[in-house]
Amino acid sequence: MKLTRESDPYLPILREHWDALTGMYLAFEDLAPMMEFDVARGQLRAYSATEYLEGLTERTREETKQQYQKAVAEGALMVFVRDESKAILRSYVFAPSKGPSMRARRKPGRTSPSNRSRGRLDKVSMNNRKKKS
Q: Is the pTM of this model over 0.85?
């Protein structure tokens, strides 16, 4: 199933936390961080991109490295959403001039090593509240 902006369940979560996400990215911008939002914990984390990418499975590592390098060269923001309950680690690239543009990739099964082994720079806990309709 190909995801669209309308069908992707994680885009609303990223929109809800957009200010915190971009603020944290800008705080570490000179280190070109890799950003990750953990759905279950409602936490946003900034990691050393090199260590984060090395923690990915061999199957996805090289393609993701290329996507990340392209994103950095274009001034875009690459974010991963981790949903342990569904064993999903999905990447997004947000272009600065066009607003959120999605390049979602589903990576089923085991995601990556624990946070301790990936050089976490910082983390911010946020309430992962659902919006009332």
A: no
